[in-house]
Write a structure and sequence with these properties.
The chain is of the alpha+beta class. The protein is elongated, with a radius of gyration of 28 Å. It has helices at 2-6, 12-21, 46-59, 65-72, 95-103, 139-169, 174-197; strands at residues 27-28, 31-39, 84-87, 113-115, 118-128, 131-132. It starts with a helix and ends in an 8-residue tail after the last helix. Strand 4 and strand 5 (118-128) form a beta hairpin. Helix 6 runs antiparallel to helix 7. Residues 197-205 have low confidence and may be disordered. The longest helix is centred in the last third of the chain and has 31 residues, at 139-169.
């Protein structure tokens, strides 16, 4: 396959297009490390707990967040760790919690945030902005990936033509034709899977 790939020519336009279509491969996502202090809410206590969370936030003007989390947080999994939740993963927490996290800069503490767990004070303890490698920096990598993709596609097309030829020649023998058709279907399914896994679209005509 590598020899076939080397024979594939690529224009700048084709490489640019490939880069745009696969930009996520060259993207480093933003990293946010967060901690929280949780105040759970029992029925009929929402206003009281909200005020408790606000009072705790005011204490943070003079007190350490991790120390206060150990003293006050009602999250049994993180309180002993100073409220540390680790790296923030989008799509895991409730929308209100995620919105608050995304609005914070490093070192900032949110206003009390209400979720189904209770009220949270959230702090972003580490923030590494996301980045995208520019085209020029990854051009050779893109070229190699593009050539390999094209080589796999051409190889699959060639195999399809071979299989279709075998099926055509076997049509006079009903049983053989049936077995050959099954075999060819398995081969084509496998190649379609391989291609879809690599996000290449192949249409057989």
């Amino acid at each position: 396959m590598s020899q076939l790939a080397e024979q594939v020519s690529a224009t700048e336009e084709q490489l640019q297009t490939y880069y745009e279509e696969h930009k996520s491969r060259y993207t480093t996502p933003e990293r946010r490390k967060i901690s929280h202090i949780l105040f759970t809410v029992q029925p009929g206590q929402e206003e009281e707990v909200s005020k408790k969370a606000q009072a705790a936030r005011q204490r943070l003007a003079n007190e350490d967040f991790a120390a206060l989390a150990k003293a006050l947080s009602e999250d049994p999994l993180t309180a002993s760790k100073g409220g540390d939740l680790g790296l923030f993963t989008p799509g895991v927490m409730e929308p209100a919690f995620e919105e608050a996290v995304n609005a914070l800069q490093q070192g900032e503490v949110s206003e009390p945030v209400k979720t189904s767990f209770g009220y949270h004070l959230i702090k972003v303890t580490e923030l590494q902005p996301g980045s995208i490698k520019p085209y020029d920096a990854v051009r050779e990598e893109i070229k190699t990936a593009y050539q390999r993709a094209q080589a796999e596609t051409r190889g699959a097309r060639h195999l399809v033509r071979v299989v279709e030829g075998v099926v055509h020649e076997a049509r006079d023998d009903g049983r053989l034709a049936h077995q050959t058709t099954i075999y060819s279907s398995v081969i084509l399914s496998w190649f379609n899977f391989q291609i879809s896994e690599n996000k290449f679209l192949l249409k057989f005509t």
